[in-house]
Design a protein that fits this description.
Length: 120
């Protein structure tokens, strides 16, 4: 005796054909599955402590910091060159002595200072 095959549990013995329309329960089930899949994907990308947007923000912050380090490295090199010139270059030493301290060379030069007549 051959057993009669049914369409499966809950189908009422009816099988839906390939082109048959879905009923409301089937449509609702598929919508729920798709919504859950979208929610899982969204959480995988954005959820947790470091989401995708946070990683992009971190990349931009890293680039800003690298630019700042590069700028400061150039400033350090410039200041090291200035330090070397101040310590060993007589022309630089003389320029600084004249500009910063108002010094003159021996008896060959005179320093004139102009003051504001309105100031006491």
């Amino acid at each position: 005796m051959a057993a009669k095959r049914s369409g499966g549990a809950g189908s009422g013995g009816r099988r839906r054909g390939a082109g048959a329309p879905l009923d409301n329960k089937q449509i609702l089930g598929r919508v729920v599955v798709v919504a859950l899949a979208i929610a899982v994907i969204a959480f995988a990308l954005e959820g947790g402590e470091y989401g995708t947007l946070d990683l992009f923000r971190q990349d931009r912050a890293l680039e800003r910091e690298r630019a700042a380090v590069e700028s400061l490295s150039a400033e350090v090199q410039r200041l090291q060159a200035l330090k070397k010139a101040v310590e060993s270059d007589p022309e630089t030493q003389e320029r600084i002595a004249r500009e910063e301290f108002g010094m003159v060379k021996g008896d060959k030069e005179m320093l004139y200072r102009f003051t504001d007549p309105e100031r006491p």
